[in-house]
Amino acid sequence: MVENLDVYGSVKKWFTKLEAKSRSGDFNKSSSKRAGLYWLGKYLTFLSTTPNRPTNPDTLIAERLNQKPSSNIETRRIQEEYFEQWIVQLKRDEYSPNSIATATGIVRSFYKANYGSLEEVSTIRPHKVRAFKVPSPKDLKKMCDQAPLPLKTWILCQKDSGLGNADLQGLSLSNLSSEFGTIKTQLKKGTIPIHIEINRGKTGERTDSFFGPNSVKVLKEYVNVGGGRIFRSSINPNRPISIRAIQQQVKSLAIKAKVATREVPVTPYKLRVFFNTYMKMAGVNESVVERMMGHSIGRVRSAYLVTGRDENVQGMPISKLAEVYMQAYSAIDIESS
Fold it and tell me: How many distinct structural domains can be found in the chain?
């Protein structure tokens, strides 16, 4: 595979455009840059197997810009035919549809950044997404009635908060709410709902979510209020719980409870979709729901949705956000379903 691609002017121009759009704190260490170099290198290596084809990024773009204005359609289409031949080769090499979609999307963006867009090449679509089921409150009640305590706690905390797997996995009892204290403090005081505050260092995004009555009840039974990580490995309590294990356990439990099948399963991701769907149907503002789930809501909406207080910011009190949450909670309450 062609090496040291980032010394070429066309690649530098491409990376400048990608970095301008990137939210990564350090683009040079990002997966976007690594994937870009990898797939562009694979494409150039493919081209080099045939004589008289460009062998570096700059000559590739120079040829494309020279041919594109031609009145001869065969001349204009030369590099598009190169590209189509590469797609065929990737298929013959048995790359997955998702990998081919990623590879071709990356190389197309390289051409576009250098004003040599490939105009008559079809976009490769990723593999069709597998069907999943969004559970109802009654479905979740059936699942929790049969779940062991650790799994039941995860399900209720995720459906109550809408938080992602990594966010839940990383929570500890010392996780601090600027308004209500740590999770441990809130549990001891009987605070409902429990406020979960997460500040992401890379993006600067703030997440304010909650554990409602269903999850607080089971948390009191499940956690060791002495401290430490909430969700721990059953094999090694000093390590976080395995997300892969949680995914498999949730799928298996839903089948056992007869609320899903192997072909149309319930997954942890669909617990988040449950939260998103039912909270919005209950009338909670879309931006508020997305913020609770830890999604980026963009600069403009973030500027008009300021929550919490610190030495620099005086936003909407978390107690007010908690009121909004509890007013809608009946929509996700499995005990009243």
Answer: 2
